[in-house]
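hi! just following up on the protien thing from before. the input was this:
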Amino acid sequence: MRKTIAILSRNLINFSRDKVRMIASFLMSFFFLFVFSFVMKSSIANKITQPTNYLICGVIIMTVFQQALNNSTAILDDIANGFMKEILVAPISRYEISIGQILSSSVIAVIQGLVILIASMFMGLKLDVLHFFGALGIMAVAGLTFGSIGLFIATVAKGSSAFQILSTLLMMPLSFLSGAYIPTTIMPKFLLPVVYVNPLTYITSIFRFVTMDMAGVSSAKLVEEGVAYNVGGFVLMPQLEFLIIVVIGLCFFALCVHKFNRADFSVVKTFCHHH
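and the predicted 3d structure came back as:
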């Protein structure tokens, strides 16, 4: 456990030292926060009860998603600078290394999401202590789930350029077909099958359900607001959506750990920097 924590601490320190990356990620999140909260809210105000909070929740969970996925490039950086070779010959199992990488991606993503969440409370998002920790817990689940997916992609890609291409191809459709920015209730029907198989759809919905305190809202109203989903007459409630996300997270966690344990890092290609 101490070895895993050591990897986690190292990655957190590296992230805190990368000022450009850290500032850029926060600026992008705040950019989307302001754009989608104030510019686009008028177009959905007649369909959503709390349009500002609705969009704020989407931006927060998207921040966690994107950062958890992107932070997985740390493993490729370690390969590029030779650090991974030193780790592999150290008395530490690959299992512990992979868990340390997933945890570091998740923690960084949750910290960034937490900053946006706190900032949102000054923009009108109201949270009591219970719902605040509930939102934090969901961000943690999102971070672990998409951190696992990110590490799986990084291990499969076998190259930083391939990882960037694959993550971009994955990130763009998942982002805009999850209801985070654009409510799924106004999307064309032919896109709904993609919405229903998108794990980001469900983590966004359960995050809104908890953060906006919708526990007492009827299932019909939840469907109308895009927090629950009517799939062929069966209503997917947020509680069931949360279980779906947990199952997906556990599956990808097992997959990425298994793949990482068998990966041949000697054939991984990284960007070369010429001086």
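Residues 2-178+249-265 form one domain.
The CA atoms of residues 185 and 226 lie 6 Å apart.
cheers
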